[in-house]
Design a protein that fits this description.
The structure holds two protein chains of two kinds. Chain A has four helices and three strands. Chain A is an alpha+beta fold. Chain A has a single domain, classed as Orthogonal Bundle (Arc Repressor Mutant, subunit A), CATH 1.10.10.10. Chain B has seven helices and no strands. The longest helix of chain B is centred in the middle third of the chain and has 31 residues. Classes of the chains: A alpha+beta, B mainly alpha.
């Protein structure tokens, strides 16, 4: 086990979601799906997990009659992700 | 998870961050074709002005004599300008569309919208400003103003596409400022800025990103 790694970021999909949200504010579900080339169910469960940890926040709004859900990284999530990345880099640069 | 897997994950993270903020399907060929269109346009403009100079008194490098807005030469130049714009836009769109399709990407996404918005704001301001200059017969300043604002637009848009676009931007701003000092050589600076620069950077981008 590498020291400092966050077990919540072990899945590649969660890494992908966080990567997108680190450099973009409020990304909607479909854009996220397209960016990560994923299917609905796959992405939804991982997003739920990240939300449960309060790493991302969710905003629901209506565009016309269609509901649109967008996601944003929280301060907690950004810090956790940064720590995870630096732990990874430290491990690889050993 | 082993070291190799971690390394792959880190690389993927970088790729996703880039892909989600930058429009990377922009083709170098689009730049080259825009440059060639500009050079052809400048050559045609030269021919039109040279042939008509004994009637209008307007030559290629003389900004002192005003061109009559109702003359045939004015419409010929306008036609050339619109032609250059259409050719650059049409082929520019085509090559970028082709590259995006090859890479299994869309051309209308978050990154491309950001790039276009960043490009459009300085471009529109520059366009309106140029029209105001024409309204007051300040023709000599139109070329430098278009170069400067196009340069600013490129610098602005470069944060959302290949960084080479920033290079086109900085050089165009420089050419625009030089042209503002040497008023009357507008078409020469235009040829350098919109023609030569696009071909150089288009080729650089083509060699670096497109040729695989």
């Amino acid at each position: 086990m590498i020291q400092g790694l966050n077990k919540h970021f072990e899945s590649r999909i969660r890494l992908g979601v966080m990567s997108v949200l680190m450099v973009n504010d409020w990304v909607d579900f479909n854009t996220m799906k397209e960016l990560l080339s994923l299917t609905d169910g796959n992405l939804a469960s991982h997003i739920k997990a990240l939300e449960k940890n309060e790493y991302i926040e969710i905003r629901k709004a209506f565009v016309g009659k269609k509901p649109k859900t967008t996601y944003n990284a929280t301060k907690l999530g950004r810090t956790a992700f940064k720590n995870h990345l630096s732990a990874l880099e430290k491990f690889l640069n050993r | 998870m082993d070291t190799k897997q971690h390394l792959e994950n880190l690389n993927e993270i970088k790729q996703i961050m880039n892909r989600s903020t930058r429009f990377l399907s922009l083709s170098g060929l689009s730049g080259i074709i825009a440059g060639i269109s500009a050079l052809v346009g400048a050559a045609l403009g030269y021919i039109v002005l040279n042939k008509g100079s004994y009637i209008s008194g307007v030559t290629y490098f003389n900004s002192k004599v005003l061109l009559d807005v109702n003359s045939i030469i004015f419409y010929q130049l306008l036609f050339i300008g619109v032609g250059v714009l259409c050719s650059a836009l049409f082929f520019g769109f085509y090559f970028t569309y082709r590259k995006a399709k090859k890479e299994d990407q869309t051309i209308w996404n978050k990154a491309s919208k950001k790039m276009l918005l960043n490009l459009a704001v300085p471009l529109l301001v520059g366009g309106v400003f140029s029209l105001i200059l024409i309204r007051y017969n300040l023709f000599g300043l139109v070329a430098p103003v278009t170069l400067i604002f196009y340069g600013l637009a490129c610098v602005n848009a470069s944060h959302h596409t290949h960084s080479e676009i920033g290079g086109i931007g900085y050089f165009n701003i420089l050419l625009g400022l030089l042209n503002a000092y040497f008023i009357g050589y507008g078409i020469l600076f235009w040829t350098l800025g919109f023609g030569v620069l696009h071909i150089i950077y288009g080729t650089l981008m083509y060699l670096k990103y497109d040729r695989k």
